[in-house]
Amino acid sequence: MQEGIQPKKWSCESRNNSYCNSSNQQICGGWQENSKKGDFLKAERAAKSAGMSKQNYTIMHLDLASLDSVRQFVDRYKRSGRPLDVLVCNAAVYQPTAKEPSFTAEGFELSVGTNHLGHFLLSRLLLDDLKQSDYPSKRLIIVGSITGNTNTLAGNVPPKANLGDLRGLAGGLNGLNSSTMIDGGEFDGAKAYKDSKVCNMLTMQEFHRRFHEESGITFASLYPGCIATTGLFREHIPLFRLLFPPFQKYIIKGFVSEDEAGKRLAQVVSDPSLTKSGVYWSWNQNSASFENQLSPEASDEEKARKIWELSEKLVGLA
Question: InterPro entries this protein is in (predicted)?
Answer without folding.
Answer: NAD(P)-bd_dom_sf, Prochl_reduct, SDR_fam
